[in-house]
Write a structure and sequence with these properties.
Shape: elongated
Strand content: over 45%
Distance between the termini: 17 Å
Length: 129
């Protein structure tokens, strides 16, 4: 499976994008029978994904996190853990980033000595599939 955020490969990824939905505002007035709503347009709520990637050293892991932080405020392509491609995804923020030294890589490359865990806040900017 591809599992990428902005072209950056991930070993694991959990989380599900939230689709665009029609937003409504209640414009019902007191003393008037019935309900009234105004369409505001389609919007998606932000969502969170958690990823793990690998690096060959602590310095490479820090560089990887810096690269992820550089994606904040940009549109990226997300390929999720079901191999579904989501276009026009906005990276809102990176809320957590941690580096863990590992002794035996599983699922990454043979030279992987550090696992990089990141929590992403993302939002679909338009119909992204």
């Amino acid at each position: 499976m591809a599992r990428t955020v902005g072209g950056n490969p991930m070993i694991t990824m959990t989380g599900t994008p939230r689709l665009l939905e029609e937003r409504l505002r209640d414009i019902t007035r007191p003393g008037v029978d019935g309900s009234a709503f105004k369409k505001l347009g389609k919007r998606a709520e932000w969502f969170e994904i958690r990823t793990m990637s690998g690096a060959a050293s602590a310095a490479a892991a820090n560089t990887l996190i810096e690269g992820y932080r550089d994606l904040v405020g940009t549109l990226v392509v997300l390929v999720d853990d079901h191999n579904i491609t989501w276009n026009n995804v906005v990276v809102l923020r990176i809320t957590q980033a941690a580096i863990r030294k590992i002794s035996t890589p599983a699922g990454g490359t043979a030279d992987m000595t550090h696992a990089v865990f990141v929590t992403w806040q993302l939002q679909l900017s338009e119909d992204a599939q």
